[in-house]
Amino acid sequence: MTDHPTPPSLPHAVRSTPWHTDTALAHLGRTSATAALSVNPPLVRASTTVFPTLAEFKDSYRGTVFEAPRYGRSGTSTQFELQAAMAQLCGAQSCIALPSGLAAIAAVLGAHARPGGQILVQEGVYGPAQVLCDQVLAPLQCRIDYFDSVDSLRELWTDQACLVFIEVPSSLTMRMLDAAAVSEFAASRGVPVACDSTWGTPLFFDAHALGIALSIHAATKYINGHSDVVLGLVTGSYEALASTRAWCDRQGSHVSADACALVLRGMRTLGLRMPRHHASALAVAAWLQAQPQIERVLFPALPSDPGHALWRRQFSGAPGPFTVELAPCSEAAFEAFINALQLFGLGTSWGGFESLVMPAIAHHLRALPVQPDAGRLVRLHIGLEAPGDLCDDLAAALAHIGHGAGPSSP
Ligand SMILES: Cc1ncc(COP(=O)(O)O)c(C=O)c1O
Predict the structure, then answer these.
(1) What is the E.C. number (predicted)?
(2) Domain segments of the chain: what residues?
(3) Selected catalytic residue, list 70, 126, 273, 296
């Protein structure tokens, strides 16, 4: 099935608890359940919070916004439970929930941007984040520079640097970047690094241990895992999160209690789902690599990938999305391939229980030229289906491209 036999190892323990990760996932975020005599924390929807005494009302404005009841917009106990669970899972002091993963990226970037400042952005980050940089932040006179290596980060650095934003591996192109080296360099100049850690999840990627100050997760993907919620989470120390928290407060950011309850429910099974995504993605990627219609597979978990050694150092597993470059084919054959897939839904998301396919057509969203791709790039998300069924489905669809696919092995 694959020449990478190492099973994914989950982090042994959640640092702020004495528990193994699996135990923590079952027990975190349930503080308010006890009073409700229920297993799960109550779903508290509120636009208005009422206080028994004036002293408690006043106290609510002394505490940290988005961490305790104040006014409906700043959250209810359901949101605080999710944030506390996520912070503990990530070994962070604090967490803020935002309406989407992109809103979380926008809040972090927006909170650090300033006229005359410089934000250094890794080439290949999630396309809409790049659009935000180019079309919203740059016109506000915040300089945006794109880098693709630690060396180019050093070269582009100016005294006005106020934030470094990375995503590992980069969206679609799946390029690895040494997150620890980036963090070390930025920290030596007193500048925080924010990282889109959605791909690795807290289970496969310990962002804060690598020195990343602000770790951003589109909980829409694996943390929820069921393709029915959009939500973002940012973790970090209170100090690192202070400007983002203030930005969210000023912007009127709000997330629904229902979304938080669903994400908390999805999180309970993260420890079961991620090793399965890892094993299936590796099996399908290795099978695809051997097919004549596939030029190459961009997936750092494959030993043939240029980022493999770095991935092994900085990740403990690989989840389901990766990119394949098809051998050059006609538009009609490409369309026939996509349309023939039965088990892969045609959609732009990933991280749910189901497999997905998406033509990677985002070149115009990228600042620097991406790798040459004479063939077409396709992003696959490998869900929780049996990998053999997925390979059979891919084999039948690849036959539309010609050359005849080999037998499915897993
Ligand atoms: C790597 C990455 N980060 C962030 C996002 C944005 O998440 P959301 O859809 O919750 O805004 C996505 C969405 O696809 C993504 O792929």
Answers:
(1) 4.4.1.8
(2) 21-267, 270-401
(3) 126
Q: Is the pLDDT of residue 52 over 90?
A: yes
Q: In terms of Cα–Cα distance, which of 241, 217, 240 is closest to 230?
A: 217
Residue 330: per-residue pLDDT:
86
- % of the chain surpassing 70 pLDDT: 91
Phi-psi region of 180 (alpha: psi -120 to 50; beta: other; left: phi over 0): alpha
Judge if the beta carbon of residue 101 lies within 6 A of ligand 1.
yes
- Closest-CA residue, ligand 1 atom 15, reads 126
Q: What single letter denotes the amino acid at residue 95?
A: C
Cβ–ligand 1 contact at 218 (below 6 Å): yes
316 within 8 A of 288, measured Cβ to Cβ: no
State the amino acid at position 312 in one-letter form.
R
Distance CA 343, CA 393 (A): 7
Tell me if 99 sits within 8 A of 230, measured CB to CB: yes
- Residue whose CA is at the smallest distance from ligand 1 atom 7: 101
Q: Which of 143, 221, 366, 379 is catalytic?
A: 221
Q: For position 10, what pLDDT does the model report?
A: 57
Instruction: Output the 3-class SS for 335-389.
Output: HHHHHHCCCCEECCCCCCCCCEEEECCCHHHCCCCCCCCCCCEEEEECCCCCHHH
378-390 mean pLDDT:
98
What 3-state DSSP class applies to 162?
A: strand
Q: In angstroms, what CA-CA distances link 58 with 46, 50, 80, 95, 246?
A: 19, 12, 19, 23, 19
Q: At 291, is the secondary structure helix, strand, or coil?
A: coil
Q: Which of 196, 206, 305, 393 is catalytic?
A: 196
Note the maximum CA span of the chain: 76
Each residue's pLDDT tens digit, 127-162: 999 999 999 999 999 999 999 999 999 999 999 999
For residue 406, how many other CB atoms are within 10 A of its CB? 14
- For residue 161, the cross-strand partners are 118
The two tokens of residue 19 are: 């528990």
> Which architecture characterizes domain 270-401 according to CATH?
Alpha-Beta Complex (3.90)
Q: Which fold has domain 21-267?
A: Aspartate Aminotransferase; domain 2 (3.40.640)
pLDDT band at 376 (very low <50, low <70, confident <90, very high): confident
Q: What is the CA radius of gyration of the chain?
A: 22
Tokens of 216: 């951003």
Residue 195: what pLDDT? Answer: 98
Token pair belonging to 162: 């106020």
Distance from C-alpha of 220 to C-alpha of 393, rounded to nearest angstrom: 26
User: Distance (Å, rounded) from C-alpha 175 to C-alpha 129?
Assistant: 17
